[in-house]
Amino acid sequence: MIEAMASLFKRFACLLALCLSFGACAALPARVAQALKTAGIPLSSVGAVVQELGSARAQVAHEANDSMNPASVMKLVTTYSALELLGPAFRWKTEAFVDGNDIVLKGYGDPKLNYESFWMLLRSLHGRGLRDIRGDLVLDRSYFGAVADGRIDDDSFRPYNVTPDALLVNFKSLRFIFIPTDSGVRVYAEPGLPGLEIINSLKLSAGDCPEGRAFRNLIEANFLSQPPRASFTGAYPVACGEKDLNVALYDPQDYVAAMVKQLWGEMGGTWTGAVRQGVASPSARRVYVHESEPLAEIVRDINKFSNNVMARQLYLTLAAETGGAPARPENAFTAIRKLLLSRGIKAPELVIENGSGLSRIERASAATIAAVLDAAWKSAVMPEFVSSLPVVAADGTMKKRLLGEGIAGHAHIKTGLLQDARSIAGYVLDRNGRRHLVVMIINHPRASAEGQPALDAMLAWVYDGATGRAATTARPPVASPRRP
């Protein structure tokens, strides 16, 4: 009995020392704790840090060093590291070669070789005198090594499950557009690729317009890759108005083939060959180099709209640029860890699988994410990084949150969402003109369905200036986060 009590006292002393040293026990704001209680989420399932920028003290550091799944907040680690290591002006290239009768396209991982960019690439080849492609279209994807598909669920048609590709064209996706009319619902695809069959027997209906999976279930969306077919046979609420649905329907090579057939034909060119994988021969002649938008713009798309495939493309680009081609994910992790250590961030709990947060195994603590935010604020790339984050109640993934609240337009916040995880991280300018970094991660079965009110309560609490009245004596956890 005495030994058990001594062991318990020793454990309590260790926890007390941890609280005093790293602020790991600083209480959550009352309104946040109440929102979590209402949601049925225990405080032990939450990690959080709030700290005024430039301050030596954290106002909140609840379970700050616990290893947690940060969901898409992990994109902050990837994008900050890329801005530092590659520079905001970094651009991807896509090369075109004439190799006998063949055309070779060599990709270097451009995350945004979208429909318009690919059209410009082909248009530039046409403008250089190329009219008839008598051989094959050869796709050189060798800049990236073999990549696991990394699907987070069993739905292979969802665009967020698209596998990274050194020659990623238009995210390999189609956008189906639904337009209610007096006679029913018009459906068409963009791009309207040859061979695609659309079956549309939608019926207009009353009621609210659901989002996500509920919308797909309501319209009874079904897809087939071979041959490419999409069917919509359910109900379409009038309240939806014009709406779209993005789907990754095609095999990568079939997708490029269909894109070339459509666009090249529209330009008056001919092509009778096939699409295959390969590389240019030593005698091939490079005829054009397409350049992407700069990294600063790519980072905005990644963080504003939480684009998973673009984040994965960026992560593998880091791997290739720092460790050589073909890109291997472990080289990106090595480069990121080295960068963080150079900024005084040890992050022993950090686990990165693909850099997007779309993962069941990625891990980071609230303290590590806070440390990244602090380092980014002090960095020369701060303007590009901060401007890439969604503005509360204005754009990106925060466009519809906290509308009409005082914090609207006063915070740049990255969000994260998985089945058992919800998170926020970013910067809040409070009503008194002070700026704070904020991180809150919830890992719990009820997080995705019930966790948002608690996250919003945290943001509102920081904006209200309550942090100035609740400062603890804890040292900041952002200098060197570590597990107890």
Shape call: globular
- Unreliable stretches covering 5 or more consecutive residues: 7-25, 470-476, 479-484
When the domains are counted, the total is 3
Which percent bin holds the helix content?
Answer: 25-40%
CATH topology of the largest domain: Beta-lactamase
Strand content: 15-25%
The separation of the N and C termini measures 26 Å
Could you give me the name of the CATH homologous superfamily of the largest domain? Answer: DD-peptidase/beta-lactamase superfamily
User: Structural class from helices and strands?
Assistant: alpha/beta
What would the average pLDDT be, to the nearest integer?
90
Task: Tell me the strand order in the biggest sheet.
Answer: 2-1-20-19-18
Architecture per CATH nomenclature, i.e. the level-2 architecture of the largest domain: 3-Layer(aba) Sandwich
Query: How does the major sheet shape up?
Result: 5 strands, antiparallel
Topology (SSEs and partners):
Layout: H1 2-22, H2 30-39, E1 46-52, E2 58-62, H3 75-86, E3 93-99, E4 102-107, H4 115-127, E5 132-133, E6 137-140, E7 174-181, E8 184-190, E9 197-200, E10 203-205, H5 212-218, E11 221-224, E12 229-232, E13 235-237, E14 243-247, H6 252-266, E15 270-271, E16 275-277, E17 285-291, H7 295-305, H8 308-323, H9 329-342, H10 366-377, H11 382-387, E18 411-418, E19 421-429, E20 435-443, H12 447-450, H13 452-463
Parallel strand pairs: 4-6, 5-15, 6-16, 9-12, 10-13
Antiparallel strand pairs: 1-2, 1-20, 3-4, 3-17, 7-8, 7-14, 11-12, 18-19, 19-20
